[in-house]
């Protein structure tokens, strides 16, 4: 497949240094966006074509655009980090590119070649490099590649035209505050995904399905929802936007990829980092009753959630109907902190990248 050329059309009105610095000083998550975006079109007739880097700005859309009605949408999330030498690198972008292709396949959307995905991200990071936060904190530039249908019509079918875009947002430590273990609401009424469904694709529909349970969680004083399998309502799957790990002393366990949870790249990386550090790392099922019993009898020493946005975040308290429990006294556990530091050190370029995970951009 031919990788489209990306024509550079820079903005004539980029933000001033002072404006940008003010945003970088307190970025939050997904609040501010950089000066540019990348777009690549796809049509049945022409395939991938017209790659462009253009000023960031609104899209003009027909009200009968198919995406607005039937959710032909997939996305990715990855980060660009500034290393101590000033260079900028992304973490395992080929994994995001491959997952994007799998998501596309599941939604009968066109598959963007891996090289085109990586190139689009690189071009944007290179152009908006000043938006990559300075080395030293936990800030990074979050990249959001995504694809929507651009065909107009109300028939339910795959579209004959799509648009791939990449936008970028500086993000801070806010969503990664390791000192604030999360409180989780275990949803036994709502499910996120079903066998044979779209749970393992990164598509907006899965997040739409999570919103009501998230509201319930918030009204119960919880930060995130934990979903169980849809059939038995017994096996722990994942959170709305993060995978989960259970720590039993020197052993860490994460639920297997059943098809209804997202194959997280952080999840996968932690399996390797943990083994590098001498821990036993396993993929096996954990039931909600076992979670509660093991936390209460103390064999379960820590639980943490992980993802690109969340990095590794401890889970302090868990609530389900009729019960509340804690693990590691509701505090961040030592295995969680050790794995978190080991992963961040690789991403931030502080240690040797022995698995070849970092992709140098600018
Ligand atoms: N699970 C869900 C539902 C997510 O949205 C995410 C975030 O991308 C993850 C898990 C973690 O995936 P990754 O580590 O690739 O960011
Ligand atoms: C990420 O961690 O990249 C995510 O996409 C999670 C959430 C913001 C949807």
Keyphrases for this structure?
362 residues, alpha+beta, D-amino Acid Aminotransferase, Chain A, domain 1, D-amino Acid Aminotransferase, Chain A, domain 2, 2 domains, nine-stranded mixed beta sheet, globular, binds pyridoxal-5'-phosphate, binds 2-OXO-4-methylpentanoic acid
Provide structural commentary.
The chain folds into two domains: 6-171, D-amino Acid Aminotransferase, Chain A, domain 1; 182-347, D-amino Acid Aminotransferase, subunit A, domain 2 (D-amino Acid Aminotransferase, Chain A, domain 2), CATH 3.20.10. By secondary structure, it is an alpha+beta fold. The chain has helices at residues 17-25, 66-70, 93-106, 114-127, 204-208, 211-219, 265-276, 288-297, 334-347, and strands spanning 6-8, 36-43, 47-55, 73-75, 78-82, 88-91, 140-149, 161-171, 182-187, 224-228, 236-239, 243-248, 251-254, 280-283, 302-307, 311-320, 323-326, 358-360. Helix 3 (93-106) packs across helix 4 (114-127). Strand 13, helix 7 and strand 14 (280-283) form a beta-alpha-beta unit. The chain is built from nine helices and 18 strands. Strands 1, 2, 3, 4, 5, 6, 7, 8 and 18 form a nine-stranded mixed β-sheet that branches. Strands 9, 10, 11, 12, 13, 14, 15, 16 and 17 form a nine-stranded mixed β-sheet that branches. Bound molecules: pyridoxal-5'-phosphate and 2-OXO-4-methylpentanoic acid. Pyridoxal-5'-phosphate is lined by residues 77, 238, 241-243, 262, 264-267, 307-308.
């Amino acid at each position: 497949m031919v990788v489209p050329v990306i024509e550079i059309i820079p903005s004539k009105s980029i933000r001033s240094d002072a404006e940008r610095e003010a945003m970088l000083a307190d970025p939050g998550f997904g609040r501010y966006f950089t000066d540019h975006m990348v777009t690549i079109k796809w049509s049945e007739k022409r395939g991938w074509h017209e790659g462009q880097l253009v000023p960031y700005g609104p899209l003009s859309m027909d009200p009968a655009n198919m995406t607005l009605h039937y959710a032909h949408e997939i996305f990715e999330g990855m980060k660009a980090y500034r290393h101590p030498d000033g260079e900028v690198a992304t973490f395992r972008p080929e994994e995001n590119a491959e997952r994007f292709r799998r998501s596309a396949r599941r939604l009968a959307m066109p598959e963007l070649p891996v090289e085109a995905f990586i190139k689009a991200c690189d071009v944007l990071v290179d152009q908006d490099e000043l938006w990559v936060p300075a080395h030293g904190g936990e800030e990074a530039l979050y990249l959001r590649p995504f694809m929507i249908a651009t065909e107009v019509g109300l028939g339910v079918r795959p579209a004959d035209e799509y648009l791939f875009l990449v936008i970028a947002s500086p993000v801070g430590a806010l969503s990664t505050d390791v000192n604030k273990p999360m409180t989780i609401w275990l949803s036994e009424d709502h499910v996120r995904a079903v066998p044979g469904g779209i749970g393992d694709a990164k598509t907006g529909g899965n997040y739409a399905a999570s919103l009501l349970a998230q509201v319930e969680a918030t009204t119960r004083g919880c930060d995130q929802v934990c979903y169980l399998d849809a059939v038995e309502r017994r096996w722990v799957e994942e959170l709305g936007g993060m995978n989960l790990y259970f720590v039993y002393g020197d052993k860490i366990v994460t639920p297997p990829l059943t098809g209804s949870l997202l194959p997280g790249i952080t999840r996968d990386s932690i399996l390797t980092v943990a083994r590098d550090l001498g821990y036993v790392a396993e993929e096996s099922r954990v039931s909600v009753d076992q979670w509660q019993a093991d936390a209460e009898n103390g064999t379960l020493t820590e639980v943490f959630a992980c993802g690109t946005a969340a990095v590794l975040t401890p889970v302090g308290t868990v609530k389900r109907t009729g019960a509340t429990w804690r693990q590691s006294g509701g505090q961040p556990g030592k295995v969680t902190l050790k794995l978190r530091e080991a992963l961040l050190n690789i991403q931030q370029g502080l240690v040797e990248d022995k698995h070849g995970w970092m992709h140098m951009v600018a």
